[in-house]
Amino acid sequence: MIYKNLSFEKPSNRPFFYSSFVATADGKVWVGKPGYWPIGSKTDFETFTYLRAHADAIIDGKGTAMQFGKNTIETVHSDSFKAIRKSLGKVGEIRYFVVTKHPDEALEKRLANPFNFSPEIFQGDINELVQQLKNEQLDYVFVDGGPHLLTSFLDHNLLDELFITIAPRIFGNDGSAMTMVEGLLLDPKKVQMQLLSVEKAGNEVFLRYRLG
Ligand SMILES: NC(=O)c1ccc[n+]([C@@H]2O[C@H](COP(=O)([O-])OP(=O)(O)OC[C@H]3O[C@@H](n4cnc5c(N)ncnc54)[C@H](OP(=O)(O)O)[C@@H]3O)[C@@H](O)[C@H]2O)c1
Known about the structure:
Dihydrofolate Reductase, subunit A; alpha/beta; binds NADP nicotinamide-adenine-dinucleotide phosphate; 26% strand; two-stranded antiparallel sheet; globular
């Protein structure tokens, strides 16, 4: 298992925010065409699941929720996910927030599930979301994606750690591919990153960065 005995340093004034993305060698995390997903291996998916299991809450932007919200809900209700959480001493059900200024029926339909589980649709801005998470003592929060939501967290200096898997693939771009951060050109001085660890498994590289 990559990232065994993981621990995080929570800031004193807000929750700890962390994220994980799998990217190709040419930096693509998503292509809106069939045949380009999954990007990573089974090991990457297990690592992603293990990272998520450390969280008190998961946050998606609407784009990711529309694509994978159903899978997320299934994962967090699976026996294997619950077993990982138990082994980590995490009590209670994980919370799942979806951020959108335009909630609609399509999203609601997409998130319908047989578990009697209600994803929480959040319509405010990112600072209001941070305040709500803080008020509810959700201390460890996984920013699941996608690129537009991650951009907001980086732009507001809110991301504490970023895990990246580099998969041995190259997709190129015809305008349908996204990188990890989309929608805003960040000031190159804004995001400071410190490499905490590098692990290799099969043909993939697992990078862990601290931000700020
Ligand atoms: N490779 C990976 O590891 C990885 C990880 C995650 C996601 N992905 C892929 O990325 C794709 C989606 O990317 P995306 O960038 O379009 O999706 P996204 O960031 O999940 O969703 C974008 C939408 O979320 C809402 N949103 C995001 N930030 C917001 C903010 N600060 N305040 C209010 N609303 C906000 C907006 O919805 P409204 O317009 O409705 O307000 C925005 O249009 C998915 O299909 C997914 O598979 C890949």
